[in-house]
Design goal:
By secondary structure, this protein is α+β, with helices and mostly antiparallel strands. It contains nine helices and 14 strands.
């Protein structure tokens, strides 16, 4: 996917844009979706009152929804439109991955201020999509949708005082085979895919860049060699759909959850649903280069998979090209012990859930 300049290097809001009506904008979006090609799972897409989605015999439908709001989940001044579009879809795809579901279709309800919905001239005759904020938003969303064969089958569009996106994802999973949070048992090993803390570290870099641009700091931003890579971990997350499908197909995972709110919070969720406790080996955590242990433990939006497996399960070091790391074990819950215990060279300590939680 084409990468745009980082947030702050250009301002889409300062460009004069032509106002465009809702119907014309919907027609442009529909044309882009149609040009992307059809999917056997979507019998009827954009254009009617409802979409029609098919599943195979013996499958169940998995449904998830995620809200993304400007000022809370992204910043217009910091995040390129392509990154916002990709992040909106990645949130829902990550939920499907955690259930071991294959994506069927996406539905997007998008609310935007007028200046973000303005039209612009086509890039070329062969590429009719313009360069306005909304066009670039769909660049990011549709690129990730194509990568994971997830057609955009409908949604809604409205004028709004702030930018907000509600994504609904439909997935399919063999009946009775979905990965759940409630399947962990004492003795299970705990694993994570990929590495942790990169998204939180990337967000901190964006904040530092914003402070520098405002003149509140005399020094430069984080200049370590991995800064660009760390930024992309935050801006362009990769949901672990292939890994979730692999685990579900082979029945290797006993319980699973995606790491959207942070390891400390999401592991506690899994333990609560399973009625167990957990011990985490701090030295075993796969920390993203450039991130801190604190960011790996509490930082959210990594969209890796955290799962448990029975003691006699032999997992490969990589699943579909992504590393898998054992980070701890499930233990019996006791009123005398914390739900999650972190074990480090300094000893054992309660790992409090300090990831993201709305209204907390």
């Amino acid at each position: 996917m084409e990468r745009r300049p980082l947030a702050g290097q250009e301002s889409t809001q300062r460009r004069p844009v032509e106002r465009v009506g809702e119907l014309a904008l919907l027609a442009r979006i529909r044309a882009r979706v149609t040009a992307a090609g059809s999917s056997p799972s979507v019998r009827l897409g954009i254009g009617d009152d409802c979409a029609l989605v098919s599943v195979k015999p013996g499958e169940e439908v998995a449904v998830t929804t995620d809200f993304s709001i400007a000022g809370r989940h992204f910043e217009i001044a910091w995040h390129p439109p392509e990154a916002i579009g990709q992040r909106v879809l990645a949130r829902g795809l990550s939920d499907l991955a955690a259930m071991g579901a294959r994506p069927l279709a996406a539905f997007l309800s998008l609310g935007l201020p007028k200046e973000l919905a303005g039209s612009s001239k086509p890039r070329s005759a062969k590429s009719p999509a313009g360069t306005s904020w909304i066009d670039r938003f769909y660049d990011g969303l549709l690129a990730l949708a194509a990568e994971f064969h997830t057609p955009l089958a409908g949604g809604d569009l409205a004028e709004s005082p702030i930018a907000a996106a509600d994504i609904v994802l439909l997935g399919a999973v063999p009946a009775g085979k979905a990965l759940l949070r409630s399947g962990a048992r004492p003795g299970d090993a705990i694993y994570v895919t990929g590495s942790l803390g990169g998204a939180a570290a990337g967000l901190e870099i964006l904040r530092e860049l914003a402070r520098v641009r405002k003149g509140s700091r005399a020094g430069g931003a984080n200049t370590r060699g991995n800064m660009k890579e760390t930024l992309y971990r935050h801006l362009y997350p990769q949901p672990r759909v292939k890994q979730g499908l692999w685990l579900a197909k082979r029945g290797f995972a006993a319980a699973a959850i995606d790491l959207s709110d942070g390891l400390s919070t999401d592991l506690a969720h899994l333990c609560d649903e399973s009625g167990v406790a957990a011990e985490v080996d701090g030295g075993a955590l796969p920390v993203t280069a450039g991130a801190t242990l604190e960011q790996a433990i509490h930082g959210g939006e990594d969209y890796e998979l955290l799962f448990t497996a029975r003691p006699n399960t032999h997992l490969p070091r990589k699943i579909a090209g992504v590393a898998v790391t054992r980070i701890g074990q499930v233990v019996k819950r006791s009123a005398k012990q914390p739900i999650v215990t972190l074990i480090t060279a300094e000893g054992r300590q309660a790992l409090e859930a300090q990831g993201w939680e709305h209204f907390a």
